[in-house]
Structure formats: structure tokens, C-alpha cells
Amino acid sequence: MTARGLSPVSTEAIWRLPATVCRITGFLGERAAGLLLERAIASTGDRLKPSLVRDRELAPDLRKSRSCPDFQAPELLAAIDDVREALEHTLGVDCRYTEPSYGLNVHNDGDYYGPHQDTSAAYAPRRLLTFVYYLHRTPRPFGGGELRVFDAALPLHTETTGAWEERTWRDWEPEHDSIVFFLPTAWHEVRPVVCPGRQHGDSRFAINGWLCAPDPAHRGGEECR
């Protein structure tokens, strides 16, 4: 391939569109984060179910963790609303009049979530912004569990989808009382967790959710899970 008589473009050339991630540390403050962690640790037994893919099917080859979809964290939603305008400016999305949808996800030894997007045929038009808020005991009792966000970055010689090993990415540490925001269309994964003690209280706790456009067909009804 040449352009105006210039040298051929190397097959090793890369085009790269980095995924935008907004990360805030110390998001709720020590006291509020500590109380929320206590509630997360108390979510045990029947409240925790095997995590589903597309909210309706088990897929252990893609996702392995436990979830509590009815977990309540109003203080987190209030803090997110306080930074909404800054998020809109940074990520280029209008989140006015959105509806939150979220749940608690618990990752222990060997748990993970492979590469995926937070979109589907049913919910893609409604999910406008993804957020993940992290909680854990300190010092951190587990290893791994990074959030890996993939860039839209592929070698020029590939097809548009490309191979995963040819993409670039950035890993974000699941630091206690930190939160990340990104667009639901971004490809991302949870790296495998290593928790030798395998105690529930030593897990990687995360509140995953979205700000969703209102569904005119279900006013006040079905959430955008």
C-alpha cells in the first residue's frame, strides 16, 4: 500500500483510539466507604447469586463471580450526582434525566469476567454511562482483579474486529473507595482474582452500574440491567 509515491505502510503500524476513563479516588471518604464495605460484607447467603451474562444466563467460561442485584447504596448515587456535570464534560455524554441501575458484585479466588461490552440488543440505547465503585479491606487481601479497559487500537493489517492479543489496553487497580466511569461501548474485563484465604470478607467488592436513559415504554418499570 502506498500513498503519493511514499514508502509502503508497515504491516506493524498501529492506529489507536484510547478509551476514555474517568477515575476518582477517595470518592466517598473514609467513614462512608467503611460503612458501605460493612454492608457489602454482610451481603451473604441467599442474597448472593452466581453472576449472569446478559442478566439471564450462566456462562462460567466468560464470567465467574457472585452478585447481589438488590444491594442499596443511596450515598453512592448521591456522590455520583454531585460529579455528573464534570463527567458529562469529560466523557462527552449527556446524563441529565437518567435512571440508575446497579448491583453488588463479589469476586473471590479464581473469579473473573472476560472481555465484554455493557451493551445488548435490549439495553444498548439506554445505558449511557458505566460506573464501577470498589470496596475492600485494607491492606488489600487479594491480588489481581484489575479492570482492563481495551482501546480501539488495531494493527492496520487486521480486519476491523482484530484479535484480542493485538489490542492495547490499560489496567486500573481496584483501589478501595475509588470509582471509574467509562462509556458502555468500551470493551473491558475483570482480570482473575487471587485470594488465597478464600474468605468472603477478603473479596474484591464492586458496585457496578449504569446511568440509563428513561425507557418511555416502561415508565418507572424495568431497569436497564
UniProtKB/TrEMBL annotation:
Q: Extract one GO molecular function annotation from the record.
A: oxidoreductase activity, acting on paired donors, with incorporation or reduction of molecular oxygen
Residue span, Fe2OG dioxygenase domain: 96-213
* Keyword entries, A-Z: Dioxygenase, Iron, Metal-binding, Oxidoreductase, Vitamin C
Q: Which InterPro entries match?
A: HIF_prolyl_hydroxylases, Oxoglu/Fe-dep_dioxygenase_dom, Pro_4_hyd_alph, Pro_4_hyd_alph_FE2OG_OXY
Q: Which cofactor does it need?
A: L-ascorbate
Gene3D superfamilies recorded: q2cbj1_9rhob like domain
Q: Does the keyword Oxidoreductase apply?
A: yes
For this protein, the record's PROSITE patterns field holds: FE2OG_OXY (PS51471)
Name under which the protein is recorded: Fe2OG dioxygenase domain-containing protein
